[in-house]
Each structure stands twice: as C-alpha cells, then as structure tokens.
Amino acid sequence: MHQNFNHKIKVYYEDTDAGGVVYYSNYLKFLERARTEALVSLGFSNKKIKDEFGSLIIVKSCNIEYKKFAHLEDELSIRSFIKSITKTSFFMNQFITKGNDLIVEAKVHLVFINEKGKPIKIPDTLLQNFKPYFCDSIKT
Hints:
This protein has helices at about 25-40, 45-55, 125-130, and strands at about 5-10, 55-65, 75-85, 90-100, 100-115.
C-alpha cells in the first residue's frame, strides 16, 4: 500500500470572494503548497532541487474538478500521492477535503526540467525517496 502526503490549511479572508467562498484559483495555490510541503517532508525543497540537481519541477498539466465549496475559516486537508512515474515526470493525485466531504479532486502532471527548460531524468536520490508514495508501478 502506498503512503500519502497530508497537509492541512485554514481558509483565510484573502482566499475568498465577496460571498465568503474560496475563489476557484486559490485551490491551485493550496495544492501547490501541499506539494511543496511533501518535498520538505522528504528532506528536499524546490530551491535545494535547483541548487543540487540543476533542475526544476514544473506543472505540465492539471485537471481539477470542483465538487463542493469551501468557506471562510474552514479547515481543509490535502491528501496527495504519486499515481505513476516515468523517467522525467510523475503524475500526482490530490484531494482537498473538509471533514468527510470531498471539495476538490486534482490530477497533476509534473515534469523535471533543466534550467534551459528541457525535460531531464528524475534524480535517483529523489526517485528513491518518492518510492513509498507510488500508487502504481514505475513506467518507462
């Protein structure tokens, strides 16, 4: 069984529209924060990946489905796991919940690139640290 990355957030006034509902684009920020904290939990950061491996992790695509609203001061949980991985990229599923209610479901394709913007092989050190979070097998 794979492990999940879990991250909790609270909805602040700045996250909402005039009706007190989380503005749709802010969910993308919440998802990004969860992915960043997942890296930190593995002993990495985006800066460290750039400095040590000369690479960046970019979002190639994101399919997001909004299921329910979140409101001002709601406490949300973001569960993330790696669905599959290739030599240069991985697919992550992320779920934002409020209590037992699913608020948002996202499928994100992330790619490792060098500083010139070309896809590169995921560094072996990172790959080994990601393994407990794989849901499916590695694809070549």
